[in-house]
């Protein structure tokens, strides 16, 4: 195959099945002015193929950029996990990363105010480990029942087909647990200057299992070595006017010129039994773990050093799933994570097909012996004549009990537990974050919020002011002022008496 940069070399055109194409300029017609002939099979193949070039875009995180790279262990964490990827300092594992915006469609501009997806795939010797995180340590929700609604609220309005500040803020402000995430997205970090200049987070709590079969709770932090760099609303608007693909261009060009971006992977590790003692819910995705309680422990460095040769093959067809876990790295009771264990592979069976694990970017680089067979687009040997069933008398498909995890204690009655009643601490951590900001950063937060709320009705703006005030009185007052609203009209007696 010739690349544009290669010296010209004859590279003959064929049909999909290898037969020579005789004429790629002129359709076959009955006479020079006549109608087409059905026997022009190359024309029919071209038109039919065009109709099938498109695949469904991801329901969210549709716009993204990807690159291959290497992960290198720099610090020994084997006392916490038996995952082979971390087994020795200096060990390297091949990886693939995809960064995204969330709400925009496949052709959306990059420099939008939005969360960024931060999805990593590590091709380990014991299977693929996907860490499908974001550039923020928390999320809008703590119950997956609301995720489809979140998606509807941030995507286009069913009638106008426009993004709607009303839909967006009506939903967010009705779920006070979203305030932590909303505060981050509206802050000066809400529009990263590029994918290279942002941190990544697992956000969820996962678990580590060590060689002694002990469990630890763990959160992953991936810190950019390029430094944090953000855009203001005005800078982003100006940039989008010039370049809708600024993040793709930045990442691609940096890797092409050999300026390989790097991130340092850290973990916060919590002993299993601490989960019952900490004053916050350690599996609540709207909460962070304070670093003073659980300091960052360095693990390794990831470097992105190879652009995909073909965007569709590797980036569009990549499939990341939180259920792709390896021995030594496992789940937690976080109910958001639990739902994601189902949602991603299910989406990918629809988007890419049941055999998407065979697409090279998704394929494990270790032996795979899964007992799944057949299905559309099965392109390997399909396990040939190996017996189908298990148990069998031929040693096939043997389970591996040596990887069993320690039992996980679970208790409680099955019910629709209402966390709004049982665990109503939505405001402390957003308030702490607000109080960490400099006065200038707080002002940016107020102004960004006011601009983003746009033409949303006043009662929704007042609801948000109420939520902010419960986090910190100055937060509510600042947002009210930026919105040109009188705060005292907004607040109930409790807040006026001095919340925050
Ligand atoms: C993409 C569902 C929460 C990060 C997706 C996709 C689905 C999905 C269906 C598209 C998958 C595909 O077509 O390949 C959900 C559900 C959630 C949830 C049901 C909550 C219950 C989260 C959270 C994070 C996250 C909390 C981050 C911590 C991502 C990322 C992608 C993605 C980064 C893009 C992956 C890629 O680059 O291909 N999500 N999501 N999601 N989600 Fe979520």
UniProtKB/TrEMBL annotation:
Alphabetical UniProt keywords: Heme, Hydrogen peroxide, Iron, Metal-binding, Oxidoreductase, Peroxidase
InterPro entries: Catalase (IPR018028), Catalase_3 (IPR040333), Catalase_clade1/3 (IPR024711), Catalase_core (IPR011614), Catalase_haem_BS (IPR002226), Catalase_immune_responsive (IPR010582), Catalase_sf (IPR020835)
Catalysed transformations (reactions): 2 H2O2 = O2 + 2 H2O
Keyword tRNA processing attributed: no
One Pfam family per UniProt: Catalase
Enzyme class: oxidoreductase
Domain Catalase core, residue spans: 14-398
UniProt keyword Metal-binding present: yes
Cofactor(s) it depends on: heme
Name assigned to this protein: catalase
Record lineage: Bacteria, Pseudomonadati, Pseudomonadota, Gammaproteobacteria, Lysobacterales
């Amino acid at each position: 195959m010739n690349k544009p940069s290669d010296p010209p070399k004859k590279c003959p055109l064929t049909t999909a099945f290898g037969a020579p194409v005789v004429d790629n300029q002129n359709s076959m017609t009955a006479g020079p002015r006549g109608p087409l002939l059905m026997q022009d099979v190359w024309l029919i193949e071209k038109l039919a193929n065009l109709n099938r070039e498109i695949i469904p875009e991801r329901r969210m995180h549709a716009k993204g950029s990807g690159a291959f790279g290497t992960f290198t262990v720099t610090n020994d964490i084997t006392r916490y996990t038996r995952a082979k990827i971390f087994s020795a300092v200096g060990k390297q594992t091949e990886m693939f990363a995809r960064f995204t915006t969330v709400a925009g469609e496949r052709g959306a501009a990059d420099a939008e105010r939005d969360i960024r997806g931060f999805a990593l795939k590590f091709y380990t010797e014991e299977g693929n480990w996907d860490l499908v995180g974001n550039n923020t340590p928390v999320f809008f929700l703590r119950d997956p029942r609301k995720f489809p609604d979140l998606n509807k609220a941030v995507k286009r309005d069913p009638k106008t087909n426009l993004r709607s500040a009303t839909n967006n803020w009506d939903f967010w402000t009705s779920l006070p647990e979203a305030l932590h995430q909303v505060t981050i997205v509206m802050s000066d970090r809400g529009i990263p200057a590029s994918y290279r200049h942002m941190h990544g987070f697992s956000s969820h709590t996962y678990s580590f299992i060590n060689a002694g079969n002990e469990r630890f709770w763990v959160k992953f932090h991936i810190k950019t070595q390029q430094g944090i760099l953000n855009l203001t609303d005005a800078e982003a608007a100006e940039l989008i006017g010039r370049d809708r693909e600024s993040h793709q261009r930045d990442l691609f060009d940096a890797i092409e010129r050999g300026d390989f971006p790097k991130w340092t992977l850290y973990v916060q590790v919590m002993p299993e039994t601490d989960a019952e003692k900490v004053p916050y819910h350690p599996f609540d995705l709207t909460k962070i773990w304070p670093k003073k309680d659980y300091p960052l422990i360095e693990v390794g460095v990831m470097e992105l050093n190879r652009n995909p040769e073909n965007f569709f093959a590797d980036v569009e067809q990549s499939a990341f799933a939180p259920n792709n876990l390896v021995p030594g790295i496992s789940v937690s009771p976080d109910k958001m994570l639990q739902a994601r264990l189902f949602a991603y592979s299910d989406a990918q069976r629809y988007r890419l097909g049941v055999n998407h694990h065979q697409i090279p970017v998704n394929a494990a680089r270790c032996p795979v012996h899964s007992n799944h067979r057949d299905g559309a687009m099965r392109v390997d040997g399909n396990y040939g004549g190996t017996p189908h069933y298990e148990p069998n008398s031929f040693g096939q498909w043997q389970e591996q009990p040596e990887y069993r995890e320690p039992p996980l204690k679970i208790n409680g009655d099955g019910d629709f537990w209402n966390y709004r009643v049982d665990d109503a601490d939505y405001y402390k951590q957003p308030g702490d974050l607000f109080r960490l900001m400099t006065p200038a950063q707080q002002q940016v937060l107020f102004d960004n919020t006011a601009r983003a709320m746009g033409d949303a009705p006043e009662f929704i703006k007042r609801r948000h002011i109420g939520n902010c005030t419960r986090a910190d009185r100055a937060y509510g007052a600042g947002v009210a002022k930026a919105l040109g609203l009188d705060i005292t009209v907004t607040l109930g007696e409790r807040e006026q008496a001095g919340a925050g």
